[in-house]
């Protein structure tokens, strides 16, 4: 066999092996996700332990606030390249979803998020935060994906990984629910289903 054919054979073999690896990983992750579900996400577990509100002198509401944790601020960029601060969205409940186009489980839950956005967009802010590293994930790839799928929610780009770093994101997708006062409500590392999304939106609105 000539050297050219050997090289071609090795290349094809490598591609096949890689394909098998990706397929196996995909179904293994899906099996584990269905069996065990997404992991609870906690700001304390991710090192954000210094965002609790300061103790107040008196009052039932003040005591309750002491046990709640402020969601840390961060910045991302909108589709126009403008810097946007998370704190600008406080006043309504906020759902932060960390995602990429190369993450199959991020892609799988997008339709549910879009449906929820269309239903609750007047009452809830949806921050669909794309982890844009400029190599594996680009702004254009994210925009093209959203346009192709016909999703209406706005997307934001974590170009400097400000949001990902502050929240200690280790898994994709990760979804964080924040109440209208900016306090952390709950979160999940891993894909969530439509009923879970609806459940926590209703908790935030009631």
By CATH, the topology of the largest domain is Glutaredoxin
How are the strands of the biggest sheet laid out side by side? 1-8-7-4-5-6
Residue share in β-strands: 15-25%
Q: Helicity level, as a percent range?
A: 40-55%
Number of strands: 8
Counted up, domains total 2
CA-CA gap between termini: 71 Å
What do we call the CATH homologous superfamily of the largest domain? Glutaredoxin
The geometry reads as elongated
CATH classification, class level of the largest domain: Alpha Beta
Radius of gyration: 20 Å
Order of helices and strands: HEHEEEHEHEHEEH
Biggest β-sheet: count, sense, barrel?
Answer: 6 strands, mixed
Number of helices, where a helix is a run of at least 4 consecutive DSSP H or I residues = 6
CATH architecture of the largest domain: 3-Layer(aba) Sandwich
Q: Which parts are unreliable, with pLDDT below 50 for 5 consecutive residues or more?
A: 18-29, 31-36, 47-64
